[in-house]
Amino acid sequence: MKKILIVNSFYYPDIKGGAEVSTQLLAEGLGKHYEVYVLTSGGQKKDTVKDEVNGITVYRIPCNNLYWPRNSVKRGNLSKLAWHLLNQYNPIQKNIIKRLIQDISPNLIHSQNLMGIGTELWNISKELNIPVVHTLRDYALMEPVAINAVNKVLANSNKQRSENVDHVVGISNFILNKHLGNGFFKDSSHSSIHNVVNAQKYPRLTRREGDPLVIGYYGQLEKNKGINVLIKAVKDLPETIVGQVVICGVGSQEDELKAFIENDRRFIFKGKLPIQEVYKTMAMTDLTVVPSVWDEPFGRVIIESYMQGTPVIASNTGGITEVIINQDYTFKNKDIKELQEKVVKFSRLDNLKMNDEINNVYKYAEQFSDNIANYLSVYNSVIKNNGLKR
Questions:
Q1: In contact, 249 and 221? CB cutoff 8 Å
Q2: H or E stretch at 41
């Protein structure tokens, strides 16, 4: 059986966001077709830790840097800058990764996010004549830090190293074209493959026609997620339209947001919930709002909501417009008035139309439950082409 090595910054139980969830689902789905290994970073100071997660062999290498980025400790700009430079040019890390890859001897390497690993991985793969598939899940290759001059240096280095990638996958056309348009992966074949979303289905809330809406928000409480846009929109809507907003997530804006809502008891902050509790909450709300102000690469929460039969209104940024079921349910980025109009219009749906919306999103979400066949096709093509080059 052929061997696949999946490389990602973090892996279960070290979950930072949707990238880790998608990577785990991919690895476990591939386990029926390949001998799958995972290379990731760990919080230990030394030695590589080997363990097994649901039948997948996982190697956690020490993060030979100033700190392990999974730790949620605030860092100064100087510390972050030094960290990223060391992540880019780290001979100790390179030797550890190279030896581990030689020991595993995979037929193909599939890289994902590379924070804590580094794009030097692609140079190593080239040295060892192992083909590489890379999935774009964020913009870290182009903008790893908040300093433009540093980004230019690191992006140019990543761009050069990306020439060693055989095939690049975007989780949306938007993120793929963004990288290709900026000169990345110029020698790579490419495709778009959506994230796999596999959410357990829970019983839905039954809403009586005319009742105030229960709205759900699921994500970080940060400016780029637009949670302040949602709160401002709802504060100016009457309780007859929106009766409750359930907010699941944590972030640096939490205290500021709680102060802003003052005595408006409609806003319920639930903090960070286990994923199954998030799904249950989605099923108990009438509508999910995704008010992102940055270019979301995909919009995983949209499909997760659909899998609970919950319609979504979202901003028209990034890859969101590619996954939302109906463009009528998008609003212009940061446009509070348009968001209000969409919410009011949704609240006036009668029972028949509301049931149609619920059934439509259930059915639409089914196409996101598996993407393994798409990746198998890419792998077979890349491995075959690599064999012809030898």
A1: yes
A2: strand 35-42
- What is the DSSP secondary-structure string of 42-101? ES-SSS-EEEEETTEEEEEEE--SSS-TTS-----HHHHHHHHHHHHS-HHHHHHHHHHH
| Whether residue 381 is found in the same domain as residue 316 | no
In a domain, 208, yes or no: no
- What confidence tens digit (pLDDT) does each residue in 138-147 have? 999 998 877 7
Q: How confident is the model at residue 16 (pLDDT cuts 50, 70, 90)?
A: confident
For strands 213-218 and 242-248, give the pairing: parallel
Three-class SS state of 383:
helix
More confident residue, 75 or 116: 116
CA 150 to chain centre: 24
Residues 81 and 187 in one domain: yes
Task: Read off the CATH number of the domain in which 224 is found.
Answer: 3.40.50.2000
* Number of residues in the chain: 390
> What is the value of pTM for the model shown?
0.90
Closest CA to 217 of 233, 204, 206: 233
Same domain, 149 and 174: yes
**Are 146 and 177 contained in the same domain?**
yes
Domain count, the chain: 2
Residue 249 has pLDDT above 90, yes or no: yes
At what angle are helices 148-161 and 77-88 packed, to 10 degrees?
20
Has residue 390 got a pLDDT over 50?
A: no
Point out the least confidently predicted range of 194-198, 248-252, 354-358: 194-198
Residue 51: count of CB within 10 angstroms of its CB: 12
Distance between CA atoms of 62 and 190, rounded to whole angstroms? Answer: 32
Distances (CA, A) of 37 to 12, 23, 107, 190, 335: 13, 12, 11, 23, 45
User: Do residues 54 and 32 lie in contact, with contact meaning Cβ atoms separated by under 8 Å?
Assistant: no
Establish if 206 belongs to a structural domain.
Answer: no
| Average pLDDT estimate for 77-85 | 83
Residue 72: pLDDT above 90? Answer: no
50 and 118 part of one domain: yes
Which domain covers residue 143, as residue numbers?
3-196+370-389
What is the Cα–Cα distance from 132 to 126, expressed in whole angstroms?
9
Give mean pLDDT, residues 269-279: 95
